[in-house]
Amino acid sequence: MTPYGYSTDKPSNEEEMMRYSEIAVNAIKSVRNTTYNYGPVFTTIYPASSISVDWVRGKENILLAYTVELPDKGEHGFITPRTEIKPIGYETWQGIKQLLMTYGDDKRLLRTQEIIIV
Q1: Where in the sequence numbering do the catalytic residues fall?
Q2: How many CB atoms lie within 10 A of CB 72?
Q3: Secondary element (H or E) of residue 99
Q4: 3-state secondary structure of 2
Q5: DSSP designation for 113
Q6: What confidence tens digit (pLDDT) does each residue in 56-103 have?
Q7: How far apart are CA 67 and CA 52, in angstroms?
């Protein structure tokens, strides 16, 4: 999900962020058919203050800032079963990787064997 959680204000590059969100969500879905919603935290799940994605976008001015919620919708009391940890990690990585690879292609960034996430 994208900023913001505290407000319905939109980042200046909301369209770009939504495009890459869709790419990541589609890549995740292609692994195990897990469906993620995407969009601003405030309108996608609920208003939330003091969340890291807002701080990263606002204070640090990082243009592509996202937060990911685990896919459990309360079925397990928001406690991920051990058997789901690796599959969720794998599918999430596929989404992150596809987002970054597409972004790199779009911006004509140099390719390396490493992707660093801060």
Answers
A1: 69
A2: 14
A3: helix 82-106
A4: strand
A5: S
A6: 888 888 888 899 888 877 788 778 899 999 999 999 999 999 999 998
A7: 8
pLDDT digits (tens, 9 = 90+) for 5-36: 999 999 999 999 999 999 999 999 999 999 99
- 7-28 burial code (b ≥16 CB/10 A, e <16): eeeebeeeeebbebbebbbebb
- Residues 72/80, Cβ–Cβ less than 8 Å: yes
Angle formed at CA 18 by CA 101 and CA 56, multiple of 5 degrees = 80
Handedness of CA 57, 60, 63, 66 (dihedral sign): negative
Closest alpha carbon to 41 in 27, 58, 28? 58
Chain-centroid distance of CA 14 in Å reads 13
* Location of structure tokens 């990787």: 97
**For residues 3, 51, 69 and 80, what is the CA-based torsion angle, rounded to 10 degrees?**
180
Show Cβ contacts of residue 17 under 8 Å, excluding neighbours closer than 6 positions. 2, 11, 63, 64, 65, 66
